[in-house]
Amino acid sequence: MQLDDLYREVIVDHYNRPRNFGRPEKWDIMVEGKNPVCGDEIVIYLTVKDDVVSECRFEGKGCTISIASASVMTESLIGKSLGEIRLVLSDFNRLLRGEVCQRCEQYSDAIAFQGVTKFPVRVKCALLAWKTLEGAIPDSGTHQA
Ligand code: FES
């Protein structure tokens, strides 16, 4: 199996069985985002205890890439401090710019999205959840690793 095929399967699996999908009963941070190109919307909920994300969930509607990417993002952030989240968000942005990101292998299935850079119109889809969360964690876009 080619690597591209494997990554495609991983993405489709996250779309079909999105992890951490659905609104939690309680949360500390809620942020909503929209892809202005297609109108797809997403809502992210974070529960934070002692500066560490104990729960990260999402809901919304979107294409395969956007929902799968949100699913991967939630898995990547649980257990991270808010400072570490800035690093994860920055790393995923770098990956979607086509830059090398060795740490991305540690973020759930984030690495499966590296091929999305070949389809510039899909990069916005892949970044929908991540850019939305940046709105709640403002320093994330400027962090340099
Ligand atoms: Fe709407 Fe991908 S087409 S987020």
Description:
The chain is an alpha+beta fold. It has a single domain (3-134), classed as Sufe protein. Chain: A (Alpha-Beta Complex). The chain has helices spanning 3-16, 64-77, 82-96, 120-134, and strands at 29-34, 41-49, 52-61. It has a three-stranded antiparallel sheet. A hairpin with a 2-residue loop joins strand 2 and strand 3. It starts with a helix and ends in an 11-residue tail after the last helix. Residues 140-145 have low confidence and may be disordered.
Q: Any key phrases for this structure?
A:
alpha+beta, 4 helices, disordered C terminus, single chain, 145 residues, Sufe protein. Chain: A, binds FE2/S2 (inorganic) cluster
CATH class: Alpha Beta
* Strand composition percent: 15-25%
Strand arrangement in the largest pleated sheet: 1-2-3
Distance between the termini: 33 Å
The CATH topology: Sufe protein. Chain: A
Outline type: globular
Q: Quick one: biggest sheet?
A: 3 strands, antiparallel
